[in-house]
Amino acid sequence: MIESERDARPGSRTFVLSPNASLSGRQASYLMLGIALAMAIIAGGFALMGAWLVLPFSGAEWILLAYCFKLRLRSCRIREVITITETSVQLERGYGAPEQIYRFQRAWVALDWAESPIKGHPSRLSFRSHGKEIEIGRFLAEPERAVLASELRKILFDSK
Amino acid sequence: MSSAVATHDEHHDHGPAKGILRWVFTTNHKDIGTLYMTTALIMFLVGGAMALVIRAELFAPGMQFVDPMFFNQMTTLHALVMVFGAVMPAFAGLANWMIPIMIGAPDMALPRMNNWSFWLLPFALILLASTLFMEGGAPAAGWTLYPPLVLQGGAHLPFAIFSVHLLGISSIMAAINIIVTAFNMRAPGMTLMKMPLFVWTWVITAFLLIAVMPVFAGAVTMLLTDKFFGTSFFNAAGGGDPVLYQHLFWFFGHPEVYIMILPSFGVISMIIPTFSRKPLFGYSSMVYATASIGFLSFIVWAHHQYTVGMPLAGELYFTYATMLIAVPTGVKVFNWVSTMWKGAMTFETPMLFAIAFVVLFTMGGFTGLMMAISPADLQYHDTYFIVAHFHYVLVPGAVFALFAATYYWLPKWTGYMYDERLGKLHFWLSTISVNLLFFPQHFLGLAGMPRRIPDYATQFAEFNAWSSVGAFVFGFSQLIFVYVIIKAIRGGEKATDEVWEGAHEHGLEWTLPSPPPYHTWTTAPEIK
């Protein structure tokens, strides 16, 4: 997903890139609560009948399921923020907070978009400057990456 | 300025690693799917060989080949191997191969756990088979492992139970992976109500697994503690209750039947529209019907226990609740028939197996309705009528759906068309022989022949002889199936991407090359 914010200054813009996730954190919480409730009814019922050993197995299984959801949701929290100003292009990447920051001089930055020779494989969009190359929007869907490439090209080069 | 330079080859197509270690360490969903299905096929042949031992002994009255103890070990292991070693892993294999492709995801959500959940399986199955060579032999108390009988066995008990635990852990991890993948990794635009029915049926199956496996794990652990730690969960002498085990077992065991049949419904719902050249009739009603069947499967377990004694109100409740399952099942059957109605149907092997599934599974369902009636069940209970019923559900039901799925997707998996002539030969031999095998067992049961016995009265001889002939023809017909698969893997006519005419309208998998690249959907497709 691409969210874009136009800055008041001419030629400036901010893009926030995030991967597709078909389940939000809140939906995952409701799902886990529902599963916990169902499992508690089943395991609790049997515990009341004397088969209390079902309880630890149910609990362990629920914890594993919740952990797996957490792992998966974390990988969906990655964000890339591209900030373009009159003089610089900055890319921040991280889970929740910026963990890597790359900064280029706007005048020297080039945008590369290479299509994959293999059908069904992603294209590659990257900033390049002074022999260094940073890939952007790797987690985007192909049409989204095409839109991003075109938008960046417009701002970086057409407005010069 | 901090900087990291991404190298260009990160995006090159990393094909599979070379050698045996590719299969040991693989986290690729297609490789793991192949591993699951290969294991399932081997175990299908092993479990089938056990069935042939049983049918050879039952060919004629009297004791011919094996002693009664070994006969009972064969019936127990045949069931456990077929359920946990063949049918469930085969569907897990299909899920691994097809779910990410069908929802536009690059892989399963937790690939390393996926590898682990597969590799537990062969070790657990070897452990189970090893009990045959232990003092006192393998478990011989039936797949239900009822106490107190199972507690009187030899050294096998802890090994068999540990094996069941490992199989359960494997299933749970596979189920968790499927739930997380289907909920969190669908391509943009693929809402829940746009998911292919195969994915829907597997999601519901995965929830069933999550709900029932801890109950089974708890039950067999209590068997262990009763045997080795002096507890009395199921020991009446110590204040326990053997019927409690039955409740626990069937609370797991009844949904387990649906765990084996719901993915079949999904497979059939993919195949019939393709070969009818029409969209599936009543997609949303199919989803709701599947969910209803899943829910109802939890509240009918005690229909397996009518004969242990139950209050009249309980018998009435379980009778009506069980019969209620016929309603959503009927919805599904009528929707499949409506999909075929006025369709431009062709009868390639997958479609033949799908039609046989609809007809024969419905027969199995009808005999299930007969047994739902508690007063009538007293006559059927523990007779060959039960054996005939559940085999009609599980062989021309689940196994035929697996055959249909294999023929349907084999060209996509291998890139080569299978031998249609041999496929049809496999179909006709299997369909005729499976009916010869199981249909006479209804009459045996109605005439009063009990199950799990190696010898019987001469009045049952003729039907048993027919049944055994059917079993051997069915068993050896499966060698054709194995040959067809090997032949397709080795080469042949090249399969197109779409494989079946108009198939691209019925799923994302048909938009990919045949075979699909090692890494699929590294970028998500957009679903309109």
TrEMBL record, chain A:
InterPro entries: DUF2244_TM
Pfam family name, one: DUF2244
Segments crossing the lipid bilayer: 28-46
Entry annotated with the keyword Membrane: yes
Alphabetized UniProt keyword annotations: Membrane, Transmembrane, Transmembrane helix
Keyword Transmembrane helix annotated: yes
Designated name of the protein: DUF2244 domain-containing protein
Organism encoding this protein: Methylocaldum marinum
